Amino acid sequence: MSELKQLIEKFIEIDDSINEEVEALLEENEDFDEDAFSKEHEDELNELGEIYHEIEHMVFNEEFIIVLNASSEDKEVVALIISDEDEESEEFVIPAYTDEKEAEEAIEVFKEQFDENEFVCETKTGSEIIADHNEDEDFIGIAINAPQMEFVINGEDVHDCCE
């Protein structure tokens, strides 16, 4: 398993734990004190921030497998629309995969939804994916190993500032 995938799984685990606790507290007490909760969970929240920052750096340099729709004249990168149907804009993320197994699983899902399409793979770094789509105002970011893993990193967050 890639180091990035392990880091994302750790991030999701901590984030889910914190969110579950917040939801439970909200259910039992309408006067939820966000400041007190933040102080009580300062170490976990700091760890979450540190992990996310590390993910931002890793995504920038990481080589991903992206999926292309080979059925069109120009091979188009598969994008996942994340905005509601009734919205004017179509915000989207680019799914990117950490290994061939993850990409193959996603292609099977795509084939179920769009059986007339043929899919192929290509390798790009996170920074290349961001650069390819950054000019589109509806581009949100990169969905790592989607739909198997629910983790999206905002395109504006991906950077390589301090090694």
Would you kindly provide a written description of the structure presented here, covering whatever features stand out?
By secondary structure, the chain is α+β, with helices and mostly antiparallel strands. It has helices spanning 3-28, 34-40, 42-61, 100-113, 126-133; strands at 63-69, 76-77, 80-81, 92-97, 119-125, 139-144, 152-154. Strands 1, 2, 3, 4, 5, 6 and 7 form a seven-stranded mixed sheet that branches. The two termini are 22 Å apart. The model has no long low-confidence stretch (mean pLDDT 91).
Total helix count?
Answer: 5
Query: What is the percent of helical residues?
Result: 40-55%
Number of DSSP-assigned strands: 7
Query: Please, what is the average pLDDT?
Result: 91
Helix-strand topology string: HHHEEEEHEHEE
Describe the secondary-structure layout.
Elements: H1 3-28, H2 34-40, H3 42-61, E1 63-69, E2 76-77, E3 80-81, E4 92-97, H4 100-113, E5 119-125, H5 126-133, E6 139-144, E7 152-154
Short overview:
It is built from 5 helices and 7 strands; from the N terminus they run H-H-H-E-E-E-E-H-E-H-E-E.
Structure characteristics:
46% helix; 163 residues; alpha+beta; single chain
